[in-house]
């Protein structure tokens, strides 16, 4: 519907399962000897089918955020087979198990009902793994890479910028947004100045694309290129 009404709009669609599952995890859950765990390879089939349906609906960029291993290759195969060889993939390649996702999870009620996402999201203390994840996703056919969250991980963003030439996106997540907005509401920060400073920092660290809840408020304040 959006592509019909606003054909000039660039649509990036987020491929994941957590918004559609009652357990809130990003992959398929199996029970194994009384213990529940996320089944990586079974998730790939479902994720690629979702990506295919997004492509048919008119997505301009497919952005897998689930963090399963091998999903970029699985999605690329599915898209190619369905005739979407030109459709780019923006991989959430470097996504940390962060405490900054809270407001988004509350809005989506997507907090996992058991366990947590640390078996597939990354350990915030591990910087080098980011390079491996990025290399793997590029080898599987990713066209763009994302780092999420943004501000607490500028060093990781910069490390990727030094190593790779593909477009890099920084995702300023809901907790980053809320912290700035609430501080401004409390009279502690000048919101516009603070937001533009965080964006400047992300660009300085190497981001080409910013994903941010402040876009509607301040995108017009960016210098046009
Ligand atoms: Zn998810």
How would you sum up this structure, described in words?
This protein has 225 residues and is of the alpha/beta class. Helices cover 41% and strands 17% of the residues. It is built from 9 helices and 8 strands. The strands form 3 sheets. A 4-stranded parallel sheet has the order 5-6-7-8. The chain has a two-stranded parallel ribbon with strand order 1-4. It has a two-stranded antiparallel ribbon with strand order 2-3. The longest helix has 18 residues. It starts with a helix and ends in a 7-residue tail after the last helix.
Task: Report the CATH C-level class.
Answer: Alpha Beta
Secondary-structure-based class equals: alpha/beta
List ligands, each type once.
zinc ion
CATH architecture: Alpha-Beta Barrel
Query: By CATH's scheme, which homologous superfamily applies?
Result: Aldolase class I
Quick structural overview:
This protein is α/β, with parallel strands linked by helices.
Q: What is the fold's blueprint, element by element?
A:
Blueprint: H1 2-5, E1 12-15, E2 28-32, E3 35-39, H2 40-57, E4 61-64, H3 71-81, E5 90-95, H4 102-108, H5 128-139, E6 144-148, H6 154-163, E7 168-172, H7 174-185, H8 191-205, E8 209-212, H9 215-218
Parallel strand pairs: 1-4, 5-6, 6-7, 7-8
Antiparallel strand pairs: 2-3
Bound molecules: zinc ion (ZN).
Keywords:
TIM Barrel, binds zinc ion, 225 residues, 8 strands, globular, four-stranded parallel sheet, 41% helix
């Amino acid at each position: 519907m959006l592509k019909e009404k606003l054909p000039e709009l660039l649509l990036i669609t987020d491929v994941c399962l957590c918004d559609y599952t009652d357990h809130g995890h990003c992959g398929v859950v199996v029970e194994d000897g009384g213990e529940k765990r996320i089944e990586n390879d079974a998730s790939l089939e479902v994720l690629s089918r979702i990506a295919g349906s997004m492509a048919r609906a008119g997505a301009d960029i497919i952005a897998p955020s689930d963090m399963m291993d091998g999903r970029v290759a699985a999605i690329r195969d599915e898209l190619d087979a369905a005739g979407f060889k030109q459709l780019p993939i923006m991989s959430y390649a470097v996504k940390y198990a962060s405490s900054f996702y809270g407001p988004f999870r509350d809005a989506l009620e997507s907090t996992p009902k058991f366990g947590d996402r640390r078996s597939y999201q990354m350990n915030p203390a591990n910087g080098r793994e980011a390079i491996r994840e990025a290399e793997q996703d590029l080898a599987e056919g990713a066209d763009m890479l994302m780092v999420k969250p943004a501000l607490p991980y500028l060093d990781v963003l910069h490390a990727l910028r030094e190593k790779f030439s593909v477009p890099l996106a920084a995702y300023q997540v809901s907790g980053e947004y809320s912290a700035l907005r609430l501080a401004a509401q409390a009279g502690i920060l000048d919101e516009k100045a603070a937001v533009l400073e965080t964006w400047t920092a992300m660009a300085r660290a190497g981001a080409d694309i910013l994903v941010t809840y402040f876009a509607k408020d301040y995108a017009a304040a960016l210098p046009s290129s």
